[in-house]
Amino acid sequence: MSAVISGCNTWCLIEEFGKLKIDWLRKYHPYKSGIPSHDTLGAFFSALDSKKSGECFINYAVSIATHTSGDVIALDGKTVRGVGSKSSKYPIHIVSAFCTKNRLSLAQETVNEKENEIVAVPRLLELITIKGCIITIDAMGCQRGIAEKTRAREADYLLQVKGNQAELQEQVIKIFNRNTDRETTITHDRDHGRIEKRVCEVINDLTFLDGEEVWRDLRTITRIESYREDKRTGKSSNNFRYYISSLPMNVKPINKSIRSHWAIENNLHWNLDVIFKEDGQLKRKGDSVKNFNMITKVALALIDSEKSTKKNLNRLKGLKQL
Length: 322
Description:
By secondary structure, the protein is an alpha+beta fold. The chain has helices at residues 2-5, 11-20, 22-25, 38-47, 50-64, 117-127, 144-152, 166-178, 251-261, 263-275, 288-304, 313-316; strands at residues 72-80, 92-99, 104-111, 134-137, 156-161, 183-189, 194-203, 220-230, 236-245. The longest helix has 17 residues, at 288-304. The radius of gyration is 22 Å and the shape is elongated.
């Protein structure tokens, strides 16, 4: 873990880190036989059952997370593109559950070959306690079974609607075009060299939504209109996004929950790619990829919890004595 925090992402580098820091490491463990070789490390994490180590990871995440009602848990998948077993051309795809408030990955589930994320999400929801939370998923997760599973585990869902649910999307658009009774909030943002105006509208009159009953406890639909202008080039864009939810009519919390979902991309997947170079890793044997993915997420959580310095993540990861 110390080696990964310090930027080592291969078994060889981890072995070298151990040799360089052996005196410091012996403050915490005797290492009577010295540092294990990179071959030993690779063999160990390849043979280690990722489901069992995943249980340990979940227990750790629960121990440091602060749970409050209404926490947003974002679900999304990421492909480790540089990795594939010797018997398969396919890289490994992992769906993560990310608590946006704690900036902490709570659990993960691997999408097996010939599966998609729709199959893995219900398994992931079984692994964690979600009572009282808000589960957000992009259009991939807009499935009746996922809505049912979420409500059965006493959580609310907030699902994006796109072309994979074409009929539902068409109906939601028509309701917004016809119904004027709605709650609206408008926010403005001028960060990152652009001007953004965001209009969030929520409707709870679903009288004309056909098939409403097949979505368990469906209570509201939401439309997000985003207008963006690049301050340097002057180019602008305007787009609409639509959502269904079991949440009651309250526009500001819904708008905040939708925005919170992107934390899984910005605070988890981006860091795994850019800071920890996950896509460039070549671990292929057994469960080594899945296990190392969990180690990296724990390392990221530890780095994120380090509050004694205001240094950015790239510099903080280089601290050798954590």
